[in-house]
């Protein structure tokens, strides 16, 4: 529910702070006093388009904020999905308009988009004005209201999941059909490519190995020349070490401590001899084999062509070979694959259709109940000849089933049944919408309902009946109504007066909650346009004060 509304620097309002109680509240005041401004500010808070012209003259910004409370799962889930923390169901919405035309919005301190703000607002408040096409006039919302009233939330979620599975299965089938069709058209080319890749007998890293081997063969003379040179130098070093060992043998006879040096040098001599042997064997391995060189060059050309065509690397070519094999295999099994996918789609489609029929049966049952309930409510609101209908039409299967829902009405005898939004005058439309909301109230999600001048064109007993319906609706909802009729005002549990006056040469709008004596005076004004003993007595009798 809406607990508090704060407005600052907005049109005629420099600063305003209103606390709204539960139950049924009315706002009254002279024409032009600022009631519409308050409603406009509230609409802005709920995501309406911002207009910098609404900023109070002389100010650089306008700010509207509202405090709401709710424990409804849908609202808390929405906040959670946006990572917005709510302490004990409290929701604080703030909207700021700046003189450069930019605006910002936040929920519990977190900046949000207008789309997110509007999405949340639709769960918090529903505003009905005389000629507006509100949520009840939307075909999508009419469907949602019928389903909600029928308790179909779980069934609709299941329908949505099934239909999503069906659409994804259809997409997979269509994608596979295209892939197979493409593969069939490319089959001859793919088979040629596969044969080319298979005949190449590719292996990871072979191109680098061939390249290195070619380099060695092509430079074998230079390599051998330098290896021979290294061998000769090592042999000379070996001879020098042998001579050094002989000299150390002579020194050892005179000094035993030289033995450690000799042993170390002897080990070095052994290692050097092994190195010379290794170099000699390596030298003997070098040879210029023209046939091998020719073979390697040919292999290198094959690998280069493969990489250029299927690469850029041998790994890419090997991967491409596997892909082509899969395409050819899929094309060869196309009938089997398509049949399996078609069977799966048909099975899911049948499950969707069966569940859609279940939903339709529940909708039909609820439709009959609601038609009577709303028609009865219209009778209570002095539309004695009105008849309300809910039309279900079959349409293409969707996530909501296979029905199209439309709210229809016949206002007077002899008239045709027509769409809700095209069938009544402003006053009648207000009562129709009140009857619908009253009938849906027991299962309605929106806790706060605002009615802007729902009394237009009404009077006498009809006004009393409308007031009674609003009062009854307030047992399950917070009701805020802007009215000009005493018959409606006296039924409210709280009465606010909107007024304007000149302050410091400027017009300012104010709003305040009336006490009992003030309510009597304002009701008297609503009754006769002026306050006198007769109107005061009448007001007291209506208010039972």
UniProtKB/TrEMBL annotation:
One of its GO terms (biological process) is SOS response. One of its GO terms (molecular function) is ATP binding. Residues 2-500 form the RecF/RecN/SMC N-terminal domain. Keywords: ATP-binding, Coiled coil, DNA damage, DNA repair, Nucleotide-binding. One of its GO terms (cellular component) is bacterial nucleoid. The keyword Ribonucleoprotein does not apply. Residues 217-254, 314-387 form a coiled coil. May be involved in recombinational repair of damaged DNA. Belongs to the RecN family. This is DNA repair protein RecN. It comes from Candidatus Ornithospirochaeta avicola. The gene is recN.
């Amino acid at each position: 529910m809406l607990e508090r509304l704060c407005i600052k620097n907005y049109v005629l309002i420099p600063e305003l702070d209103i606390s709204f109680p539960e139950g049924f509240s009315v706002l009254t005041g002279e024409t032009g006093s600022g009631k519409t401004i308050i409603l406009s500010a509230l609409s802005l808070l709920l995501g309406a388009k911002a207009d910098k012209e609404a900023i109070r003259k002389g100010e650089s910004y306008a700010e509207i904020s509202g405090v709401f409370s709710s424990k409804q799962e849908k609202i808390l889930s929405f906040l959670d999905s946006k990572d917005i923390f709510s302490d004990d169901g409290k929701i604080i919405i703030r909207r700021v308009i700046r003189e450069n035309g930019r605006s910002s919005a936040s929920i519990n301190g977190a900046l949000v988009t207008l789309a997110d703000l509007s999405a949340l607002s639709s769960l918090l408040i529903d505003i009905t004005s005389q000629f507006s096409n509100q949520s009840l006039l939307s075909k999508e919302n009419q469907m949602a209201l019928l389903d909600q009233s029928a308790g179909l939330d779980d069934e609709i979620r299941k329908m949505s999941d099934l239909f999503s599975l069906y659409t994804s299965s259809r997409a997979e089938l269509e994608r596979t059909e295209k892939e197979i069709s493409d593969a069939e058209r490319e089959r001859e080319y793919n088979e040629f490519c596969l044969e080319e890749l298979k005949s190449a007998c590719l292996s990871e890293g072979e191109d680098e190995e061939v390249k290195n081997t070619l380099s060695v063969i092509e430079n074998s003379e230079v390599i051998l020349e330098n290896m021979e040179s290294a061998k000769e130098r090592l042999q000379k070093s070996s001879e020098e070490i042998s001579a050094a060992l002989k000299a150390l043998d002579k020194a050892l006879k005179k000094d035993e401590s030289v033995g450690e040096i000799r042993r170390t040098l002897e080990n070095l001599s052994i290692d050097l001899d092994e190195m010379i042997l290794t170099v000699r064997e390596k030298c003997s391995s070098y040879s210029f084999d023209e046939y091998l060189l020719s073979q390697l060059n040919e292999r290198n050309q094959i690998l280069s062509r493969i990489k250029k065509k299927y690469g850029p690397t041998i790994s890419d070519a090997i991967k491409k070979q596997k892909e082509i094999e899969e395409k050819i295999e899929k094309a060869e099994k196309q009938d089997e694959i398509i049949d399996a996918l078609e069977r799966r789609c048909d099975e899911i489609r049948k499950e969707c259709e069966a569940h859609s029929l279940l939903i339709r049966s529940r909708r039909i049952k609820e439709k009959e109940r609601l038609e009577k309930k709303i028609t009865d409510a219209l009778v209570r609101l002095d539309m004695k000849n009105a008849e309300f209908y809910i039309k279900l039409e079959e349409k293409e299967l969707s996530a909501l089933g296979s029905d199209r829902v439309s709210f229809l009405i016949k206002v007077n005898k002899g008239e045709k049944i027509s769409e809700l939004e095209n069938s009544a005058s402003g006053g009648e439309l207000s009562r129709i919408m009140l009857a619908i909301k009253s009938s849906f109230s027991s299962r309605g999600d929106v806790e706060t309902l605002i009615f802007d001048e729902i009394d237009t064109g009404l009077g006498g007993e009809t006004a009393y009946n409308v007031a009674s319906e609003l009062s009854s609706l307030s047992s399950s909802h917070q009701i805020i109504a802007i009215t000009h009729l005493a018959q409606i005002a006296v039924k409210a549990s709280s009465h606010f007066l909107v007024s304007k006056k000149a302050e410091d040469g400027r017009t300012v709008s104010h709003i305040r909650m009336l006490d009992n004596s003030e309510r009597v005076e304002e009701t008297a004004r609503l009754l006769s346009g002026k306050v006198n003993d007769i109107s005061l007595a009448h007001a007291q009798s209506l208010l039972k004060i």
